[in-house]
Amino acid sequence: MMKSLAKFSSAWRHFPLALVLGCSLYALGFWIFAPMGPLPWHEAASMIRQAYRAGDAITTRPWWAARAREDLGDLKFIQVRDLEHEDLSLYKRLWVISLPGHHGLFGPFADGTYKRINHVMLDGLDLSLFKLPPPVTVAYDFRKNLRQASVSVLQKNTAKPCSRWVENKWLCTNHPWNYVGQMIVELRDDPREVIWAHPSDQGLLQIKFHDVPGGKTLMVHTGLTPPAARTPNGAPVHLDVEIDSRAFGTIIQANETGYFPH
Q1: Percentage of the residues of the chain whose pLDDT score is greater than 90
Q2: By the 8 A CB rule, do 78 and 57 touch?
Q3: Any residues with CB less than 8 A from the CB of 142 and at least 6 apart, and which?
Q4: Distances (CA, A) of 59 to 2, 36, 62, 95, 194
Q5: Where are the beta strands (DSSP E) in the chain?
Q6: Contact 58, 48 (CB under 8 A)
Q7: Average pLDDT of span 136-142
Q8: Cα 219 to chain centroid, rounded
Q9: Second label for 153, Cα 20 to 30 Å away, from 66, 68, 125, 193?
């Protein structure tokens, strides 16, 4: 019995070495038999440019495989982790470049809502083109028109204007974070183009847009950055919307990070 235990103990001591050798042989075999050479990013970019139209957008799978931006960075990119639940209502078609092992798409890509109208395999890269439902018409983009807005801080019913426009933002106080500007920030782990409008401790923040055309729907996304949501004793943020000085609605953003549609 003791001899058997001694043999078992000796064999067990060699298990880590055997595991390392096994993993090394597997990796060596993978690189020997797997296709070698760089992926044809330039070829994929050339194909997209030749057929790209106004209203198209481009994405990659997985989301971090943004090598295509070196060749297509001047075109519209959507770089998000959860593509199946992303709002694509602004676009007519979507180009999807997938690395090996990332071909499967679910939700609207699988049930026919988004129809694949072209599919090409390029030596490891999977290039698909999807036709999306008819896009919505944007009557007014508040972020794009931020410079034409009037921004102020209300102090005892008196509006103190944020009158300095510097580097795509209205400066409201001497605090470097206290401004209203066109920013790209991380919300729910994805980069988002937003209007950064940090509440001021000196009064209510007010943003007025003039001559806004009417539309059927007012679409608003809100969210707090992860550092803001981690602040101790944080409070919800209230966004009151008025049209022609009449109350239209209120959005309450809870003290949590994310990207929330309203």
Answers
A1: 58
A2: yes
A3: 149, 195, 209
A4: 63, 24, 9, 6, 20
A5: 56-61, 93-98, 115-122, 125-131, 150-155, 158-161, 164-165, 169-171, 179-187, 190-197, 204-208, 221-222, 237-243, 246-253, 260-261
A6: yes
A7: 94
A8: 17
A9: 193
pLDDT in tens, 180-213: 999 999 898 888 999 999 888 888 999 999 999 9
- Starting from the edge strand earliest in sequence, which strands make up the sheet with 204-208, in order? 158-161, 150-155, 204-208
Query: Tens of pLDDT along 5-35?
Result: 455 455 556 556 556 555 555 544 444 444 4
Q: Which two tokens stand for residue 110?
A: 């699988």
pTM here is 0.73
- Name, in order, each residue with C-beta under 8 angstroms of 2's C-beta and a sequence gap of 6 or more: none
State the pLDDT at residue 176.
Answer: 83
Instruction: Please state the φ and ψ torsions of residue 20, each to the nearest 5 degrees.
Output: -65, -45
Q: How many CA atoms lie within 13 A of 60 on its CB side?
A: 20
What beta strand segments (E) does 198-245 contain?
204-208, 221-222, 237-243
**How far is the C-alpha of 72 from the C-alpha of 210, rounded, in Å?**
36
Tell me the pLDDT of the chain averaged across its residues. Answer: 86
Sort residue 59 into left (φ over 0), alpha (ψ -120 to 50) or beta: beta
Closest CA to 45 of 32, 58, 29: 58
The average pLDDT across 231-252 equals: 91
